[in-house]
Design a protein that fits this description.
By secondary structure, the chain is mostly helical. The protein has helices at 3-7, 20-26, 43-53, 56-66, 79-94, 102-126, 131-154, 161-178, 182-211, 215-241. Helix 7 runs antiparallel to helix 10. Pfam families: DUF4142.
Length: 242
């Protein structure tokens, strides 16, 4: 293309005149976005916008990693440390879902215990127990219901043969209690709670704790054991007043 061609005014446009530069500086900015009646934006601009948008998810991930507690001070150790900190923070706040094997077995046994206690408490309430026995049954509903939710939040409990046997044992004991009513039922229910929580402590100590591998599962079992011991002490106290 010749120099004369470059300097030639385009068809339909007047040549530049004196004062055009000043007017151009004061002109409003050109809106490159699509208007209701205009042409679509330039393809090059569209590709640039797409390249600017694509990295955003990556930037968000890095922001989350390096905003983890303590990550700002440990950044010299690199991405691996920040990733570890972020995963630890997520596990602390949102539960642990990667448990397997022996941990699942321990969680399965614990979930079965919780379910048995909940079913017995529901039966006691339906039998219209009163006083301390009713208060105890309501405590069992609340405490074991909350513990069951925490147990399931740690990971999928196992449903192996030992777990199935524990559930079956609970159903049989419930059927025995169901044949009673009135004061006889109330006494039998509390006696069953003394035996059940005593057996639960033994099960936690001899089977669940040795099977636990994940720190979160061990922590949950330790906390559960303390609650079970309190429930046992309370059941013994009620049984002694009858």
């Amino acid at each position: 293309m010749s120099a004369s061609t470059l300097c030639r005014p385009m068809s339909g446009h007047r040549p530049l005149r004196r004062g055009d530069d000043a007017r151009a500086k004061n002109a409003p900015p050109v809106n490159l976005q699509r208007s209701s009646v205009g042409a679509p934006p330039n393809n090059r601009l569209r590709r640039q916008e797409q390249h600017m948008i694509r990295p955003l998810p990556v930037l968000i991930v890095f922001a989350a990693l390096f905003s983890a507690p303590g990550a700002a001070q440990e950044q010299p150790q690199g991405f691996a440390f920040a990733w570890k900190e972020a995963v630890a923070a997520a596990a602390e706040g949102g539960g642990v879902r990667e448990v397997a094997g022996d941990d699942r077995h321990a969680l399965g046994l614990l979930a079965a215990l919780d379910e048995n206690e909940i079913a017995a408490a529901q039966q006691a309430v339906s039998k219209q127990v009163t006083g301390d026995v009713l208060a105890y049954a309501q405590l069992m509903l609340k405490a074991h219901g909350e513990n069951l939710s925490k147990t399931r939040a740690l990971g999928p409990p196992s449903d192996d043969a030992d777990v199935a046997e524990l559930k079956d044992q609970g159903r049989k004991e419930l059927a025995t209690l169901n044949a009673l009513s009135g004061p006889a039922y109330a006494k039998a229910y509390i006696d069953a709670m003394v035996k059940g929580h005593t057996d639960a402590l033994t099960l936690i100590d001899q089977q669940m704790m040795p099977a636990a591998q994940h720190p979160a599962v061990e922590k949950h079992l330790t906390q559960t054991r303390a609650h079970v011991a309190d429930h046992l002490a309370r059941a013994k106290q009620i049984a002694a007043t009858d």
